[in-house]
Amino acid sequence: MLASTGRATARRLAVDLSKTSTTRLPRYQQLRSILRIPSAQNGTVNQGSGITRRLLATAASNPKPPASTSTAKSTRKSTEKKPTKSAKPRVKPRAALKKPAPKKKAVAKKKAVKKTTPEQKEKAKALKERAKIRELRNLALKKPKMLPHTAFLVLGTEVDVKGTENADRFLRASTKYKSLTPDERMHYEEIASRNRTANEATYKEWVETHSPEQIRTANRARTALNRRSPGRRLRKLKDERVAPRPLPPFLLYLKDRRESGDDKNMGAREYIGQVGKEWRELPELEKRKYVDTAAESRSRYQEVLRSKHKSDVNQEAKADAAAS
């Protein structure tokens, strides 16, 4: 006898075999192989016990009929959907064209400004001043080398020995000049006079190689350099092609006072202070003479500038102030 678990398993297998098999003999064989029932030696089926026979009978009584091909085709056709006619896509009305938004300008990143120390500021200021002095020196024009124009300088060229210091050369020349006889001194004076004449010709030729405007620019640069370095004075260049500037009334009065010769025992600063005091106390009638003379000189000078150099007195004054 099979246990209750075995009987239930045999029934489930019998039902499953009846659903899947189409012939009876293979189901018996499958069931026997599962239940491990030995078959007869003569090829007949051994029915076994009563429970086994009932299970086999149940499996044999419910054969599954084969499915017809026609019904399968009909069901397949019914399940297939008929293709529908493709409807034309509905055209939507075009929306109003929107103007593209303006592109945002890229904001440039601010560069980090490095803080400068007071020492760096002073160094930059000194470099700027040096560059300005270099520029003014180029504009000031370097005069040509001149011959010695005094007897002492002529004697100094003879005493000058290479390799000696300036102080030694000056002391040697001074000693020799003091020991000169009158005839020897006259000889050196004649050489110095000829050198002065040659220097004037050389200087005039050099000035004429530059335009009057270049000479004026050089004089402005020399004035600026004199203010920057008081210890070293540069003389203004003289150009005979340009009319001399008119003197103001006070300088005309000072010129007359100097011609009188009463400034021999006084220094220049002291004498100018005394003449200035006299000018302030001078009556208006006497002062008017110098004022009128200065006005006439100024008008003549302005006419010369306009006719020859196409310039103006006021423009020159402004240029001199800017250069200084």
Layout of secondary structure:
Layout: H1 4-20, H2 24-35, H3 50-61, H4 69-79, H5 118-140, H6 151-159, H7 166-178, H8 182-208, H9 212-228, H10 249-259, H11 268-280, H12 284-309, H13 313-323
Helix pairs in contact: 1-2, 1-3, 5-9, 6-7, 6-8, 10-11, 10-12
Please explain how this structure is put together.
There is one protein chain. The protein is built from 13 helices and no strands. It is mainly α. Helix 1 (4-20) packs antiparallel against helix 2, helix 5 (118-140) runs antiparallel to helix 9 and helix 10 (249-259) packs across helix 12. Mean pLDDT is 74; it is low at 40-48 and 66-70.
Short descriptors:
324 residues, 0% strand, 62% helix, mainly alpha
Put the structure in a nutshell.
With 324 residues, this protein is mainly alpha-helical. 62% of the residues lie in helices and 0% in strands.
